[in-house]
Specification:
With 290 residues, the chain is of the alpha/beta class. It has helices spanning 23-34, 50-60, 84-89, 109-119, 136-147, 160-171, 190-193, 239-246, 255-270, 276-287, and strands spanning 9-15, 38-44, 64-67, 81-82, 94-97, 103-106, 128-132, 152-157, 178-183, 198-201, 227-230, 250-252. The protein binds 2'-monophosphoadenosine-5'-diphosphate (ATR).
Length: 290
Amino acid sequence: MVEIDASTKLLGLIGNPVGGSLSPKLHNHLIQQMGMNYCYLAFSVEREDLAAAIEGARALGVNGLNVTIPYKVDVFREMDGVSESAEAISAVNTIVFKEDGELYGDNTDWRGFLKSLEVNGFHPGGKRCLVFGAGGAARAVLYGLVRAGAESVLVANRTASKARELVEELEGSGEDTELNSAGLSRLPSRSKLAEYDLFVNATSVGSGELTRESVWEPGFYSCGDQVFFDLIYNPDPTKFLRTAANRGAKTIGGLDMLILQGLESLRIWTDVEFDRRKALSELREILEVC
Ligand code: ATR
């Protein structure tokens, strides 16, 4: 175990609430594995204290912070500079406190998403995808799919206007992916949906109070070649994934994405490259929720 001493560097998470977060366990495990002199803590911050918390962290020499719900968008405004991806997603989940005092914001959610597809054998290039949701999580997913060269992405959301706005915003990103939007109640026909390769749940339906719900029930056609991905990692599997698995589809839960976006943040802060497969197999066990 790495001992905390006067030169221990501090990393952490800000959000509200943070009590159920798996990030401290995840990061401190990796820190221990690499024998690095870092420590990762979670801080619950009230909205009115957000700017003061970031400024205080800077003044204390904190090295990096992750940002979680509900501050990924608010924090964006506090940054001196942001990465191209954070700019496109309009959200920051990784703050780097640079040596010159500048605050740099990055987003590792989309990379975690793409990498979790990759380690589970799905390559989105040239594929037809359907993303449920149009909030911050869906935005990172859509950006990732566009960057990976998906053939098309349909964004389906309860509030159709939000899906339309999201598509309009990302349409200008210069990539070739065909983007469309729809309300949840106006999805394409079953025979059309049978042609899709990937279905992603990026809504909150399936967790918390909505644990018994699924944003969409796959139809009765064969979905043997289709992949269903849920960003939710608790419960695992969600109803969305259970139903799809029962119909013979391949399913991927949100835990790998959580782990891989965390690895990516840690790499940005420490410049250390981790053995992704080893980290995944260890952390899947350590963080298993249910
Ligand atoms: P996040 O940052 O996690 O994406 P968010 O921005 O609050 O969170 O977005 C939540 C997403 O879940 C939205 O797409 C929301 O749909 P609306 O835009 O119509 O609100 C979706 N969502 C939440 N509850 C839902 C429900 N009961 N049925 C369908 N979609 C729901």
